[in-house]
Design goal:
Blueprint: H1 3-17, H2 25-35, H3 37-46, H4 55-61, H5 73-84, E1 91-94, E2 100-101, E3 105-112, E4 117-123, H6 127-144, H7 147-150, H8 156-171, H9 173-186, E5 207-211
Antiparallel strand pairs: 1-3, 2-3, 3-4, 4-5
Helix pairs in contact: 1-2, 2-3, 6-8
Amino acid sequence: MNENERLKEIIKILKEGNLLNDSSPENLCLVISKLGPTFIKIGQILSNRYDILPKEYCDAFSKLRSNVCPMDFKEVTKILEEEYGNLNEIFSNIEKRPLGSASIAQVHRATLKTGEEVVIKVQRKNIYEIMSLDVKLMKKAINILHLNHIVKIINLNEVIDEMFQTAKEEMNFEMEAHHLEEFLENNKGILYVDVPIVYKKLVTKRTLVMEYLLKTKNNY
């Protein structure tokens, strides 16, 4: 997909969303979900800005943290097969319904062939490419519409850059796995802290497999 194709897609979604006639928090949240990961990430950030948005909008945007329209399970399976090959050699079961779905990835409960209960975090397809296009389009819009001259309290280009940098770090599942292991090591022996075990051999750039924790092992 190139910039023109993505722009047409965005315009189509905005038109279908009919925001001029229905600017309710629920409809705006739905449109943001359809626009994809970049806009979902912005919605997540805005969900905490009770200082600039009405409470009902912040409350609606908070759902974008884990209640985004999920990928089809066929797409999830395809991504997993691209990363692991024959899934039947690794998993005895993968639940079709995700435990949660957000801007970067979604999570499915599964069982390894060895019997361990795990969760699989699966990154959305082509997310880096889509977000890169969106960032370019947003910056063009800011320059063409002179938005930084209108919104003088913040530099919108810097806000977008910071958002994209954060998103890129979240896309790095190998780094996330390292941070989880580091956190586990630093909190050894603390009864009220429990961290899921990471299955290193099943960590890739697009997938992360961790121990499924129904409750903490020490019943806290």
